[in-house]
Structures are given as structure tokens and as C-alpha cells.
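hey
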């Protein structure tokens, strides 16, 4: 698998785990310390800021699953969260 896909899988796994030590390990494997993460609701710089954002957002959406490739259920859930239609490809 291409390195960027490995890192994407790690990023999504961060969302799927509740273990702080596992989240930190995955973040250290996937991201540079100064990563820049942007989505419709966030503009974050830094690994620590990303982890804090995940910790803040995850409890709001406890049933959210993140996967590659995104299933139609995940796409529908994510679209509902961000309030607009999305297109995901693998």
C-alpha cells in the first residue's frame, strides 16, 4: 500500500479508537509534528491540536465509523455531520 494510504488508514484508526496511548502512537506514525488538517469545521496545525480535536469531536458522534474505502453508510453519516453532499473515492 502507498505510504499516504497507510497514513490515511492510521488517521482514520485514531478516530476509531478510544485508547489515548493508541491514538498518540498512531498520530506519531502518521503525522509530522506540524501537520495541517483542514475540514469544513476545522483548520488545525499540529499533531497535538489534531488529537485534541478528535477528543472533542468523537463523543459527539459515538457511532461514527471511519474506514478506507468509505462505505455508503460512512459517507451518509459524514455528509450528515458536515451538512452537505460529499464524494469519496478510493
Amino acid at each position: 500500500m502507498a505510504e499516504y494510504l497507510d497514513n490515511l488508514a492510521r488517521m482514520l484508526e485514531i478516530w476509531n479508537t478510544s485508547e489515548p496511548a493508541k491514538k498518540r502512537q498512531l498520530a506519531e506514525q502518521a503525522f509530522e509534528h506540524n501537520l495541517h488538517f483542514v475540514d469544513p469545521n476545522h483548520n488545525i496545525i499540529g499533531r497535538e491540536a489534531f488529537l485534541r480535536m478528535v477528543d472533542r469531536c468523537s463523543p459527539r458522534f459515538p457511532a461514527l465509523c471511519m474506514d478506507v474505502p468509505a462505505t455508503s453508510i460512512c459517507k451518509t453519516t459524514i455528509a450528515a455531520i458536515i451538512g452537505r453532499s460529499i464524494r469519496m473515492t478510493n
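Residues 83-90 have pLDDT under 50 and may be disordered. The domain at 3-62 is CATH 3.10.450.50 (Nuclear Transport Factor 2; Chain: A,).
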